[in-house]
Amino acid sequence: MNNLNNKGKKPGTKRVFSKNNMVFIRKEVTNSSGSNDDEWYPVNFQWIPVISLRENLRLTNENIRE
After folding, report:
1. What domain of life does the UniProt record list for this protein's source (predicted)?
2. Which tens digits make up the pLDDT trace of 5-42?
């Protein structure tokens, strides 16, 4: 079975970029002439320190094991 969609990308693949601590996601839209344009939308995303993430994951793993 082919896991690619009609544009040759795997399902769920999104193009993103970050700028000035903001993350943007690309959405392809068809304009009035029928060609595709890219529009970029900000993602509701919050940066957290790696140390906080590591501590949260450690605590979560400990709770799962209990």
Report:
1. Bacteria
2. 555 656 677 788 888 878 898 887 777 777 777 888 89
